[in-house]
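Bench notes, afternoon.
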Amino acid sequence: MANYTAVLSKKAQKQLDKLSDKIAEPIFQAIADLEENPRPVGHIKLKGRDGFRIRVGNYRIIYDIYDSELIIDVITLGHRKDIYK
């Protein structure tokens, strides 16, 4: 299986910059793991909008997969109480 490239949107990058290192480190690792396997165990196809989501503790990462270009576009990330608004 070919490796994908993860690309963070400006919004996702800003949200990641606001988080403490303790919270951001597992999120960085989860995004790096997506490059190896864009559809890990526990990923969910979102209803009502495009994309997929994975859980990292109380945080969610919402992303799109472009298989033809081998790109993972991280759209947004944030705490589970705020992410779906």
